[in-house]
Prior knowledge:
By secondary structure, this protein is of the alpha+beta class. It has four domains: 9-99, Uridine Diphospho-n-acetylenolpyruvylglucosamine Reductase, domain 2, CATH 3.30.43; 106-224, Uridine Diphospho-n-acetylenolpyruvylglucosamine Reductase, domain 3 (2-Layer Sandwich); 228-341, Alpha-Beta Plaits; 348-432, Alpha-Beta Plaits, CATH 3.30.70.2740. It has 14 helices and 18 strands. The strands form four sheets. Strands 15-12-14-13-17-18-16 form a seven-stranded antiparallel β-sheet, sandwiched between helices. The protein has a five-stranded antiparallel β-sheet with strand order 5-6-10-8-9, with helices on both faces. It has a four-stranded mixed β-sheet with strand order 1-2-4-3, covered by helices on one side. Strand 17 (381-387) and strand 18 form a beta hairpin. Helix 7 packs antiparallel against helix 9 (299-315). The two termini are 17 Å apart.
Amino acid sequence: MPPTPAPSVHGSDACLSALRDRLPAAAVLAGDEIPARNLQDTSYIRPVRPLAVVRPDTPGDIAAAVGICAAHRVAMVPQGGLTGLAGGGHPIAGAVMISLERFSGIEELDADAATMTVRAGTPLEVIQRAADDAGFFVALDLGARGSCQIGGNLSTNAGGNRVIRYGMAREMVLGLEYVLADGTLVTGLNKMMKNNTGYDLKQLVMGSEGTLGIITRAVLRLHPKPGCTHAALCGVDSYDGVVKLLAAARRGLGPMLSAFEVMWPDYWHEATVSVKGVRAPITGPHAFYVLVEMQGLDETIDGARFMSWIEAAFEDGIISDATVSQSMGDVAAFWRTRDAAGEFGTVLGPHCAFDIGLPLRAMDDFATTCRARLLAEVPNALSVYYGHVGDGNIHIVALSRGADIQPTDAISGIVYDTVRQFHGTVSAEHGIGLLKKKYLGYTRTPEELDLMRRLKRALDPLHLLNPGKVIDIAETAT
Length: 478
């Protein structure tokens, strides 16, 4: 079945008129009323002006907007905080953007059940602060916390900094409400950890990047606030030492290990030299810089355990140098070296950002091979490598220095071909969107791709929800 053709001008006009009749005036923006921020996300794809931006502020209005668009066969693109790097929230000409920015807020925090019910447009940082004020902890955390919205986090199944302990975003969701392609509102705001009643439908929508449904509300599982947090920035002399340090952290810290971030020297230089306001807490040079974080229950007991673990790592020769936090200010300063990647767009300019997964032992060999290929095949290439590593995830920033237009296709082809060579995944946590769609077959089998198309056809037969993103239903498995 081919994708649905673009609606006629008459159909678009009728759809826009119906949206204005049904929704408040402030909820429908068209033409020059559309804010510049809604014309693109952070993927460096050129801006596109859509038919309209619709900003409903109730689940009923979201469902009504989707139903109107479906009736007029007008495509829809859900938009959250627009911090995505794969183009999943990028506009489509002639489509209606369904923005969740006005549907924001925390509806309930149930301290007894340790759950929080939130609206999809709520920024992640707002959720984190509300949980903290109530004595709880939200496991999901990423550099765009102040801008990204929880609906977008869940629609891409975001990972973030603490996957090694808490898992991906879908692990924190107990219940979900979402709108299907025909405007049906499905409310499943379950608050129970055990609810084995048929298919777990929410798992289809989470991670689908708005191609199977638009998330409106979610019930999040909360964790107790850590009694103490300790971190160390370690200098390690070899990648084998990094692997040994991770094994020692898992063995010595157990479930208290909350983050294990590895930074290659090329990244470390850009983060601590090029990014203003980021200091290097540890002197170098080192082959690798590793940020280890532990979240414990008792400062006296667990703080001492962390120090004993660091001392043992020194004695065993796994680390050659380390700086250990003495306060939460130190922990934050350590994390600034890792969060500095969020400033690379300013200090390095337009670039290609990659989010890949690899077997643990292959990561440094991959980085060496990928770096060499980029230097050989892309003029004035710069690439830097960093990532969570403990959960199998590396991030790459790559560019051609001084280029007026970045050779995105050439860089992407090299990176993803090398990923395939090392049996990795083209996306660990950022999603597929537009930019990775043609490489999806590097990671998924033809049978898996065919099943994805079957699901898309079943839930969105007219191909109206975020069409052209992730997978095209007209494609045939190859």
